Fold:
Amino acid sequence: MLEIKNLHVSIEENKIIKGLDLSINKGEVHALMGPNGSGKSTLSYVLSGKDKYEINDGTIDYNGKNLLELDVDERANEGLFLAFQYPMEIPGVQTSFFLKTAINSKRKYLGQSEMDALEFAKLMKSKAEELNISTEMLKRDLNVNYSGGEKKKQEILQMSMLSPKMAILDETDSGLDIDALRIVSEGVNKLRNSENSFLVITHYQRLLNYIKPDFVHIIADGKIVKSGDYSLALELEEKGYEEISQTA
Amino acid sequence: MELVLNLDKIQSKSVSQYAKDILDNQNPYKNFKIENYKYAQLHKDVKSEILLRDIDFSKLLDNTKNITSSISNPFDLTANLNLWNYNNEDSFFRVSSLVKRETKSVNLDTFNDRNLFLDISQINENIHISKSSTNEINLIILNSKLNDEYPKSIFLDLSNNSKLNVVHFNVSNNKSFLYFETNLQDNSYFNFISFQSDNIHTRNEFYASLNQECNFDLYGLNINNYGVNDNYSFIQHLKPSSSSREVFKSIVEKGAITNFQGKIYVDSIAQKTDGYQMSRSLLLDDISKANNKPELEIYADDVKCSHGSTVSKLDDEQIYYFKSRGIDSEIAKKILKKAFIVEIIESIKDDMLKNYSNELIESLLS
Ligand SMILES: Nc1ncnc2c1ncn2[C@@H]1O[C@H](COP(=O)(O)OP(=O)(O)OP(=O)(O)O)[C@@H](O)[C@H]1O
Ligand SMILES: [Mg+2]
Structure:
């Protein structure tokens, strides 16, 4: 699915990612943990194709394609999805309209016809219900005056409606209350299948109790310093980054 | 031609001088200099290579009663003029239109229809429109394909308790200078929406005089214009407890210049006035320009008045967010432009007109 080799990224002359390798296969869930400022969000932005990042070295292969050559919207339509750590507010654009436009953009890209209004409404309603998002909410402007947790849920709603092949969740758990964390995790688990993959960025092992990862990676100063299975997250919880990084 | 206005009585010497120029068939704009016309560039011959679009209004005509040919009676404005007591410099547009043109009139109470259509570009005279019944009426004012050197005036008189909604489509004009003057008697209600698109050189003046407990809304929308597009408003609150609300939104691109200059004047006896004025411009490139000049002049102490203006650009972070969901940047920009102006469309009271305007704007937004 995704194969990152020797990735070096800088922003405005500051080296942030310094030789990162990561390989994610179909059907796998990977967790990425690491201290503040270690480059987790930077990696997710680079994967989604945000400009202003300079790729100094390395390759990223996405399902046989050179990911770095695709524009942001092409990557999305090829099934890459990033649930943002800080979702944008879009005043004047109704959430439901945004969702519809996103779905139809993807369908157009895939050469399919637009989804008819009724089918869309049904899909949106059922997905929103799963995430405990009210229809009132969907009539409001996208993310405008949403609470922190509501914004995160909105990201997951977008994800479940677009059903991506490769989803990156950047600290989706932070800001969610205990019930919302469970509901969102259930949403992710429901989407999980043998054909898609997840990269879950988090600071807390608690999320990983709900979304069981196949692999856990620890990133520090722009590099993966340790990889392991779920037990690594437990070990991390116990010892903290300092000690774990030293034993790497 | 007999003058309704005595030019010697006009306080502003420059206004009367320029008006005399018009009367003498001289070009008044040659050395034109009046503060309120600072950004209007009347002295310039603003040109564009663009072929102005034909915008189809037939669908609107199907749903409205066209009263354009019903405007006929010559009208004596003398009484009307005395109602006004300008506290600032007289409007050159008003004075010159009265010097240059006769005035015809129409009384909206003579029609039974709820939606009326008036094409003022078909009429060379100034137009006086009155309404005294209390039923709510929608009047569509079209002004299109004009190339007119001289200002034209539209006077609107609302009697006590009357209600009127105006939607003004000001589109595809080479040159058009309009003066709107509204007189609101006690308890009257007036909602005015001005859509301005595809014009090369325009200026619209909106003067409104509010008596007691009136409600006046003025919304302006300015898109796809090419040269200089100028809006000036002067709202005077003469009696207590009236409210006025003005919102102008402009999307400016391709080197166009959009100006908004507006004043809220509150007389010393007009306590409990509620005045709001906001002008926002969205610049799509670096060669376009927006000038905003809001002003307040308040002589009463128990009032609520606020004003403001913003100039912004499309937000790259927002466009990135759209793209990250598979929406290409052209569509993202169009949606963001629409989002910027949607407040104006939403302010249309009548559903048929709102839907129509929405579709029109959708098709005009590139
Ligand atoms: N525009 C920028 N200019 C300079 N440095 C930047 C810029 N953007 C990010 N950085 C730096 O890059 C580093 C990595 O940031 P990033 O957001 O990827 O960290 P993170 O691992 O996601 O942290 P957190 O856990 O706090 O979300 C940080 O030190 C940050 O200050
Ligand atoms: Mg981060």
